[in-house]
Amino acid sequence: MAGSEKTEKATPKKRRDERKKGNTFQSKDVVSVVLLFVAFFILNLLVPFIYQQIKNLYIAQMKKIMTVETLTVSGVNQLFREGALVFFISVLPVAIVIMFVAVIMSGVQTGFLVTGDALKPKFNRINPLSGIKRMFSLRSLVELLKSLAKVALIIAIIYTTILAMIPMTPDMLITKIDENVMFMMDQTMSMVQTVCMIFAVVAILDYAYQRYDYEKKLKMTKQEVKDEYKQTEGNPEIKGKIRQKQREMSMSRMMQMVPQADVIVRNPTHFAVALKYDADQDVAPLVLAKGKDHIALRIVKVAEENKVLVKENKGLARSLYESVEINAYIPAELYKAVAELMAWVYSTRKKENVK
Fold first, then answer.
1. pLDDT by residue (tens digit) across 212-253?
2. Closest Cα to residue 61, out of 184, 177, 179?
3. Which residues of 134-144 are buried (b: 16+ CB within 10 A; e: fewer)?
4. 3-class DSSP assignment, residue 273
5. Which residues contact 345 (CB under 8 A, 6 or more apart)?
6. What are residue 325's phi and psi, to 5 degrees?
7. How far apart, in whole angstroms, are the C-alpha atoms of residue 225 and residue 231?
8. Confidence band (pLDDT; 50, 70, 90) for 68?
9. Which GO terms describe its biological process (predicted)?
10. SS3 of 352, please?
11. pTM, to two decimals
């Protein structure tokens, strides 16, 4: 069905919810290539140190081999242990830096997200059918082909490097140890550099694909977007009814204030404003209620039912309606006009009292 197609981009709420679940965008190849470049940079810095370690090991091993008549198992083990120690000492600084950079790079891509949702037990993780589906999914196939391509590239680079070195082997037998070690290290570094450059291209392509795949998975159907809006903003129909009810309650409260007014100024059907002034309490006349069109007519009707004076003044009624809020004092520029109105109110009341 067309309505069930995921055609809409993920909303901010959808992204936040997925992030809380631990579902964040991350390209492992970007992390890998950064680690390769870091390793290459560190190795370049450590070339003199590694060179000296390898040279010392080479000399020591050759001396031992030349001084013994036959190689024993224990002797070979000793040579292996010494070589492993040199390798460990040479690689340890690089390994420490790489581990630190790996954590930083993963954090940069995921925003250093720490969530326990990914650790919660989920049935589909142990369900054999789900596992088989994941194994034969398009994503798994892409990852497999990508891994095979990487291995093939590395093998090809190593093979071509060694193949190019074969003609030089006779010369290496009569060359000084220092030169041989430096030559081997140069070839190794050249090999690593080539791998880094190729993997950088792979990482760029992988980043683009992973971003596309991630955004595609986050897409929502039109119905999901509507449902989310209802959950976060509320059902539009219900909200409309609530607003209508609030307006009715506000109108009712305002109409209850009309009988307390001293005068209603009107224009004659479009605007109506209820004014009250208590010289002992108010700094200026106060607007108790105001309305336009049918609300104005209701204000006038309530006023007449409660014997509140009503005065027609088109200009003043419009000015009060447009410039003064309910329960607010009139501005200074309207003092004179309202003072004349209040004088009329007091005069009318006085006449009525005389009668």
1. 888 888 888 888 887 777 776 666 676 777 788 888 888 888
2. 177
3. eeeeeeeeeee
4. strand
5. 262, 263, 309, 311
6. -85, 165
7. 10
8. low
9. bacterial-type flagellum assembly; protein secretion
10. helix
11. 0.45
Is the distance from CB of 118 to CB of 21 less than 8 angstroms?
yes
3-state helix, strand, coil in the chain (%, to 5): 75, 5, 20
User: Is beta strand 309-312 parallel, antiparallel or unpaired with respect to 263-267?
Assistant: parallel
- Give dist(CA 323, CA 194) in Å, integer: 76
| b/e sequence 111-133, b meaning 16+ C-beta within 10 Å | eeeeeeeeeeeeeeeeeeeeeee
Phi and psi (nearest 5°) for 175?
A: -95, 155
**Residue 111: CB partners within 8 Å, gap ≥ 6?**
19, 24
Distance from chain centroid for Cα 11 = 11
CATH code reported for the domain at 256-354: 3.40.1690.10
Q: Using an 8 Å Cβ cutoff, are 240 and 256 in contact?
A: no
Rounded Cα–Cα distance for residues 139 and 177 (Å): 49
Strands 263-267 and 271-276 come out as: antiparallel
DSSP 234: -
CB atoms within 10 A of CB 55: 15
Cβ within 8 Å of residue 34, ≥6 positions away: 101, 105
Q: How many whole angstroms separate alpha carbon 306 and alpha carbon 78?
A: 113
Ordered by start, the domain boundaries in the chain are 2-231, 256-354
What pLDDT is attached to residue 137?
Answer: 66
263 versus 226: the higher-pLDDT residue is 263
Q: What is the pLDDT of residues 198-223, one digit of tens each?
A: 888 888 888 888 888 888 888 888 88
**Helix ranges restricted to H, 111-168:** 123-126, 128-135, 138-165
